[in-house]
Amino acid sequence: MAHIKIKRDKCKGCMLCIKVCPKGQLKEDSVLNKKGIKPVVFLGQDCTGCTFCGVICPDTAIEVYK
Ligand code: SF4
Ligand code: SF4
């Protein structure tokens, strides 16, 4: 099953990945990362491996595995 890995300390919280995910698999975390912002977390239930999130991330914080 497709899944992603998020490097939470690289994430700057721009939320672009949340907007492009067609399956609603990403959401803002409630815990701060090392940058002092709330990064994105993966819900992990219905990822298709479309790679939209990984492609749009300006900080290469997301890796997609099919
Ligand atoms: S690979 Fe596609 S479906 Fe999976 S989390 Fe990223 S945008 Fe969503
Ligand atoms: S697109 Fe990248 S930097 Fe922006 S919120 Fe998503 S993982 Fe974080």
**Average of per-residue pLDDT values:** 97
CATH fold category name = Alpha-Beta Plaits
Strand content: 15-25%
Sheet with the most strands: spatial strand order: 1-4
Please, could you describe this protein's structure?
The protein has 66 residues and is of the alpha+beta class. The protein has a single domain (3-65), classed as Alpha-Beta Plaits. It has two helices and four strands. It has helices spanning 16-20, 52-56, and strands spanning 3-6, 26-28, 40-42, 62-65. The strands form two sheets. The protein has a two-stranded antiparallel ribbon with strand order 1-4. The radius of gyration is 11 Å and the shape is globular. The protein binds iron/sulfur cluster (2 copies). Residues 2, 4, 20-21, 23, 25-26, 47-53, 64 line the site of one iron/sulfur cluster.
Annotate the secondary structure layout.
Layout: E1 3-6, H1 16-20, E2 26-28, E3 40-42, H2 52-56, E4 62-65
The chain binds iron/sulfur cluster (2 copies).
Give descriptors for this structure:
two-stranded antiparallel sheet, 15% helix, 66 residues, Alpha-Beta Plaits, 2 helices, binds iron/sulfur cluster
Write a brief caption for the model:
This protein is of the alpha+beta class and 66 residues long. It contains 2 helices and 4 strands. The protein starts with a strand and ends with a strand.
